[in-house]
């Protein structure tokens, strides 16, 4: 699922950098984990975030994976960056 999520984010958002970490092991026994939903943390760099506030950027991400939310994905935390913000933050 991690690889599929990474590929979907890269393709849907035309992302130049995507890093997805499966943190499901940190939530063992959690209601969503018991039902099979996994917990992920993602870093996404895309020009599509340009001019958007953080909430709108996250909405774009959730739109890209909406059919997985509540099923394969129980929780998705994220940091979104434009390429310029990513370069400035990781210089």
User: How many distinct beta strands?
Assistant: 3
Helicity range of the residues? 25-40%
- Assign the CATH class: Alpha Beta
- Structural class per helix/strand content? alpha+beta
Number of contiguous helices:
4
Spans with pLDDT under 50 lasting ≥5 residues? none
Task: Describe the structure in your own words.
This protein is of the alpha+beta class and 91 residues long. It has a single domain (2-85), classed as GMP Synthetase, Chain A, domain 3 (2-Layer Sandwich). 36% of the residues lie in helices and 25% in strands. It is built from four helices and three strands; from the N terminus they run αβαβαβα. The chain has helices spanning 2-12, 31-34, 54-64, 83-89, and strands at residues 17-22, 38-45, 73-81. Strands 1-2-3 form a three-stranded mixed beta sheet. β2, α3 (54-64) and β3 form a beta-alpha-beta unit. The longest helix has 11 residues, at 2-12. It is globular, with a radius of gyration of 13 Å. The chain starts with a helix and ends with a helix.
